[in-house]
């Protein structure tokens, strides 16, 4: 646990830095974000996720990774009906006409525990319930454990209210995109989207968008949610002779892949539910990943990021 002086220092710069041998992890309390995950070596540093800009004042969407709680991706028009009551969320990503990625990425997190190579951040949200924008108050947690070889992250949501609430979670990491990098993952069918990136039809992924056989983020043009994620995704950077393997538990059964044109990054997001799961579940779909969290109940998921360099 940090002493009072450490707490003061953390508040001053909003950063928490963990180290384990060659590995370094930087966290920001604004948004509960990872701002850098890198290895240091004799040839210099390797950033395994896209690092945030230097200094302060950058948005969470410019960081290395941010948390998705208490839902991931989009909720149509920021509106949903749950247990007979209609909820209207703030439209939090202008000019988007939908609510996106939950509350945690735009909230202030606190350090609950910290060691040299581990930290637990928490986010308490009662305001949304008080304003009638969410069914119940909740507590979100992220626990980070860094080793010289990998990064473990547990993300969780606990219902602290007196009625049930929808819940979904995941992580939104950004990875460096090089001309030859390749993504491979075991997935099932893919949701096609409309012009607002809302799901319209579940289809077999076309070859150029099928992670089962490998895709090139530099040219694939993907912004889709895949069902049936098998819990393992591999990113290879041949130019670096390096790769990253992402492992996740069965509770994260969907994978969002985002390869925006003209950018130097792409995203591989293990999540527990598909886009707009809360509304589609109310319409009778049973394959959305939708969950209802009872008062006092906790929902958690674990992810492991395991980088590797080829040896000569």
UniProtKB/TrEMBL annotation:
Molecular functions per Gene Ontology: carbohydrate binding; isomerase activity
TM stretches of this protein: none
Any Pfam family matching the protein: Aldose_epim
Stored InterPro entries: Aldose_1/G6P_1-epimerase, Gal_mutarotase_sf_dom, GH-type_carb-bd
Listed GO biological process terms: carbohydrate metabolic process
Name this protein carries in UniProt: Aldose 1-epimerase
Lineage, broadest ranks: Bacteria, Pseudomonadati, Pseudomonadota, Alphaproteobacteria, Rhodospirillales
């Amino acid at each position: 646990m940090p002493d009072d002086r450490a707490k003061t220092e953390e508040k001053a710069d909003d950063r928490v830095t963990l180290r384990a041998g060659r590995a370094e992890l930087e966290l920001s309390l604004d948004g509960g974000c990872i701002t850098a995950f890198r290895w240091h070596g004799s040839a210099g540093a390797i950033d395994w996720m896209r690092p945030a800009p230097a200094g302060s004042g950058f948005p969470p969407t410019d960081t290395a990774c941010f948390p998705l709680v208490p839902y991931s991706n989009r909720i149509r028009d920021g509106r949903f009906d749950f247990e007979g009551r209609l909820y209207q969320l703030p439209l939090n990503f202008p000019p988007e006409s939908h609510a996106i990625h939950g509350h945690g990425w735009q909230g202030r997190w606190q350090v609950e525990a910290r060691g040299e190579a581990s930290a637990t951040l928490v986010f308490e949200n009662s305001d949304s319930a008080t304003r009638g924008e969410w069914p119940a108050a909740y507590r979100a947690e992220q626990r980070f454990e860094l080793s010289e070889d990998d990064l473990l992250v547990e993300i969780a949501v606990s219902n602290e209210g007196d009625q049930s609430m929808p819940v979904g979670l995941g992580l939104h990491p950004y990875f460096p995109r090089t001309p030859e990098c390749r993504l491979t993952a075991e997935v099932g069918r893919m949701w096609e989207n409309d012009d607002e990136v809302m799901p319209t039809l579940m289809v077999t992924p076309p070859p150029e968008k099928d992670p089962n056989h490998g895709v090139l983020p530099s040219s694939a043009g993907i912004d889709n949610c895949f069902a049936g994620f098998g819990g393992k995704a591999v990113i290879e950077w041949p130019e670096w002779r390096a790769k990253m393997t992402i492992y996740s538990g069965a509770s994260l059964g969907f994978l969002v892949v985002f390869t925006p044109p003209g950018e130097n990054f792409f995203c591989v997001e293990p999540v527990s539910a598909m886009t707009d799961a809360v509304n589609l579940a109310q319409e009778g779909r049973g394959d959305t990943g939708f969950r209802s969290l009872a008062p006092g109940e906790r929902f958690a998921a674990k992810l492991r990021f395991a980088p590797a360099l080829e040896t000569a």
